[in-house]
Amino acid sequence: MKKKLLSVLAILLLVITFVAGCGKQSETPAMSEQGIPTIDQIKLGEDYKDLKVNITVLTFRTDIMDKLNGYAEEFRKMYPGINVTYEGVDDYEASVLVYLNSNTDWGDIMMIPVGLEKNKVGEYFIALGTEDVLSQTYNYTGAWAYDGNIYGLASTGNANGLIASVSGEIKKV
Fold first, then answer.
1. Which pLDDT band holds residue 105 (cuts at 50, 70, 90)?
2. How far apart are CA 113 and CA 92, in angstroms?
3. Are 10 and 58 contacting, i.e. CB atoms less than 8 angstroms apart?
4. Number of Cβ within a 10 Å radius of residue 150
5. Count of helix runs (H) and strand runs (E) in the chain
6. Is there a smaller number of Cβ atoms within 10 Å at the N or the C end of the chain?
7. At what angle do helices 65-78 and 2-19 cross, to 10 degrees?
8. 8 A C-beta contact, residue 8 and residue 53
9. How far, in Å, are 54, 125, 154 from residue 34 at the CA level?
């Protein structure tokens, strides 16, 4: 029960933190293998309003803890029974891989460590939904997609390219 509750909370927090209600509902929602609603099934601000729980979110963004705590305050306005605490982790990559592999109590939600092999992601995280559905709403879904499921959503995106100055003018290459 706790795993199911925490999974729903993780999905709710991801929805609020990353899309702030801008996503669209899927026309053909499907439950995850664990019987937990997928992210496209949750109606932000309407579903799960009666939950009362404390959750911890691990983050490598120790430089913006004030901003993250602001997100938690906004989240509580919509879900007053859910207390979200962000925990900044120095040397995040090494620390969370140790947490995951030692089965210690590492918190409830985390950014997926880059060093985790994609074929192992399902051992540690619950799918947020299927790639074919979520890629219609969210950008960069391939980063943590495995076997048709999405296990994490990108919190940022980078577009790489080259710009060159030719004869004093800026032109795309």
1. confident
2. 8
3. no
4. 25
5. 5, 8
6. N
7. 110
8. no
9. 22, 11, 23
- Which tens digits make up the pLDDT trace of 47-83? 888 889 999 999 999 999 999 999 999 999 999 999 9
CA-derived radius of gyration, the chain: 18
Cβ(24)–Cβ(134) under 8 Å? no
Q: Which of 8-12, 66-70, 119-123, 142-146 has the lowest mean pLDDT?
A: 8-12
* Contact (Cβ atoms closer than 8 angstroms) between residue 82 and residue 76: yes
Q: How far apart are CA 56 and CA 107, in angstroms?
A: 5
Which DSSP helix (H) or strand (E) runs through 6?
helix 2-19
Mean pLDDT, all residues of the chain: 79
Q: H or E stretch including 67?
A: helix 65-78
Complete domains list, the chain, with CATH: 2-172 (3.40.190)
Q: What's the predicted TM-score (pTM) here?
A: 0.70
Main-chain phi, psi angles of 123, to 5 degrees:
-75, -25
Cα–Cα distances in Å, from 33 out to 127, 129, 141, 149?
8, 10, 19, 10
